[in-house]
Write a structure and sequence with these properties.
about 300 residues, alpha/beta, Rossmann fold, nine-stranded mixed beta sheet, 9 strands, globular
């Protein structure tokens, strides 16, 4: 079977690779925690493209946060009930565990299974990884893929260069402090000050990230959420973890959801596919027990923007 199919009682959509190379990816779409679905390009196009290059992809249909009032207006949709944290995070963890359990049937090497997501899905992927670490899970992701993630409910102000770029592109300037805090409080169903750490991974200290798997982070160039990703990347580096940060040139937030708008989405897809294909065939699945022996290279920043 090469066509995508639903499984795990509808929790996931599996994208079989016609010529699998052994790597797998559990993937979570974005949408501000309250929007998004499996047919959006950020979910479907990403999954189909990676599957075509050999990665088995498991796309998670996690429960969404509620939509009411201002959120309904912003999303252009009718108000509806929803599920607050930890519901969506629980769904990502359930999809991860289901994939690990069914790895043989899915033709995935568990030692080459990655976890990732875009935007709010990046938050869910990072938070789920932290919960796996806390629980002492025997199988951690071989790689964490974070595409323009939101990781802080209260972000530091952007630097002068990013602030100037946002001012010059008002359509990209849509993640100011109030909007981000509102998004998180809607997701949490309460105050951000009381949020559990896996719900706001950017608040982590280096000690909280000991043992965190190797991470690829791809940020938008003109995207205020990039600030939260950079904070998290710096903390991973301080913890001695392997982190590669890429700023995709000419992009604002959500470029994987616009694959027909220039070549940025394809460029990011290439970066992800290359890292997945490069996962070692001989490595053992990372675990909490063996993290002291796991090599770590610290932070590597790849700024591909033209000078």
């Amino acid at each position: 079977m090469t066509e995508p199919y639903a499984d795990a009682d509808g929790l996931v959509r599996v994208y079989p690779a016609p010529a699998p190379h052994g790597a797998g990816l559990v993937w979570a779409h974005g949408g501000g925690f309250a929007f998004g679905e499996l047919d959006m390009p950020e979910a479907d196009w990403v999954a189909r493209s990676l599957a075509a290059r050999g990665t088995m992809v498991v796309s998670v249909d996690y429960r969404l946060a509620p939509v009411s009032g201002l959120w309904a207006e912003r999303g252009g949709t009718a108000p509806r009930a929803g599920t607050v944290y930890p519901g969506p995070s629980d769904d990502v963890l359930a999809a991860w565990e289901w994939t690990v359990t069914h790895a043989d049937r899915l033709r995935i090497d568990p030692a080459r299974l990655a976890l990732g997501g875009a935007s709010a899905g990046g938050n869910l992927a990072a938070g789920a990884t932290m919960r796996l670490l806390e629980a002492g899970s025997p199988t951690l992701p071989a790689l964490v893929v974070l595409a323009y993630p939101t990781l802080l409910a209260v972000q530091p102000a952007p630097d002068a260069a990013l602030r100037a770029a946002l001012d010059a592109d008002p359509e990209a300037d849509r993640f100011g402090p109030d909007a981000v805090r509102d998004m998180y409080e809607n997701y949490l169903g309460g105050r951000v000050d009381d949020a559990p750490l896996p719900a706001v991974p950017g608040r982590a200290a280096p000690a909280d990230l000991a043992g965190f798997p190797p991470t690829l982070m791809i940020n938008g160039e003109v995207d205020e959420l990039r600030v939260s990703g950079e904070v998290f990347a710096s903390t991973l580096a301080a913890a001695g973890r392997e982190i590669e940060v890429v700023i995709e040139p000419g992009t604002d937030h959500g470029h994987l959801n616009r694959p027909d708008a220039g070549g940025a989405a394809s460029a990011s897809l290439d970066r992800i596919a290359t890292r997945l294909a490069a996962l070692s065939l001989t490595s053992s699945s990372p675990s909490v027990q063996d993290t002291p022996r796991t090599p770590s290279r610290g932070r590597r920043v790849v700024d591909t923007r033209p000078r």
